[in-house]
Amino acid sequence: MLVLNESDIKKIGIDWTALVDVIEEAVLCMNDKDFAQPLKPYLRFRNPKNRIIAMPAFLGGNFNKAGIKWIASFPGNIQNGIPRAHSVVILNDADTGEPLAVINTALLSIIRTASVSGLVIKHFKKTRELANIRIGITGMGPIGYNHLKMCMGLLGDRISKISVYDIRPVNPALFEGDDRVEIVSDWTKAYEDADIFITCTVSDAAYIDQQPKPGSLHLNVSLRDYKTTVYPWFKDAMLVDDWTEVCREKTDIEHMHLQCGLTEADTRSVIDIVKNDVLACFKPNQPVMFNPMGMAIFDIAIATHYYNLGITTGAGTLVDN
Fold first, then answer.
1. Tens-digit pLDDT profile for residues 220-229
2. What is the CATH number of domain 2-109+296-318?
3. pTM
4. Which CATH number fits domain 119-291: 3.40.50.2020, 3.40.50.10170, 3.40.50.10090, 3.40.50.720?
5. Which of 50, 63, 81, 132 could form a disulfide with 59, with the two C-beta atoms 3.0–4.6 Å apart?
6. d(C-alpha 161, C-alpha 298), whole Å
7. What is the pLDDT of residues 37-95, one digit of tens each?
C-alpha cells in the first residue's frame, strides 16, 4: 500500500491542465453511469459549525477505483493558527477491494476543488472571446490561493488583473513578482468588474447582493456567499455539480430553492457542461453561476491520478498491507 502526504503531493507536482483533464474523464464516467456515489453524511457534535464528512464512491472507466474521503472542517481553527480542513483518502482496487493507498493531506481535496472549477473555466473560455481577463477572488486561504494558481495555469497571459480580498490580512509575499495581483480592501472591488469571480470563504452568512458583470462566470465554491436577491440575474444560467447534494445544508442553492422557487429542472449539471455544451447555449451577456457541493467521485479521480504518479515516480512510502 502506498502512503502519500502533503510533501509527496508537492514533490509530484500540480499540473492544472492535466488535473482538469482527469476531472473531465470522471465526468464522462458519470455520463456513462459507470460510478456509484451515495449521499454523503455529515457528522456534527458539540459545535454545530464543525463537521466531519464521509465521502465514499466508486469510479469506473480507466480509474476503476473505489474509496472514501474523510474530511473534517472546523472553521474556528483559523483563529488558532490551525488549518480549517483535515482530510484522508483511502483508495481501494475496485475488483478486489484491496486497499491501494492512503493519502493524508487536505491538499488533495483543495486540488480537487480547484480542478473542478478549472473544468468549468476550460469550457467557459471556449464560448467567450476572453482577453484581458479580470479575475476576482474573495477568501484567500489555501483554496483561494490554489484557485489563483489554477487560473494562472489555465489562462496564462490572457489575465490582465487578479483582485483578491480576505477579511484577514493577505500576505503580499504570496504574489511577489506578479504585478497583475492586487489586494483590495472590500469584496466589491474584486467583484464589480470581474469576468471570473470565485468565492473561497468560510462565510456562514450571505453578503453578495450586487449585480454581476454581464457575461461573467461566478464559481460559488464556498456556497454560502450570495444573497437570494441576486437570483434574477443568474436564474437562466444556474449550474451545479449534483442537485441532490447541493440543495441542502443551508447553501445558496437551497435558499434559492426555498425562497425563489429554483428547482432541479432549472439547473444544468457538470455533464451538461462537458457533454451537452450548455455554456454555448447561454447568451453572451448572461452571467453564469456554478455551485459545486463537492463530489466524492472527483476525489477518487484525483487520488487515483496521484497514486499512479506516486507509483511511477517513487514518491511516497510503500508499506505492507
1. 999 999 999 9
2. 3.30.1780.10
3. 0.96
4. 3.40.50.720
5. 63
6. 30
7. 999 999 999 998 899 999 999 999 999 999 999 999 998 898 888 888 899 999 999 99
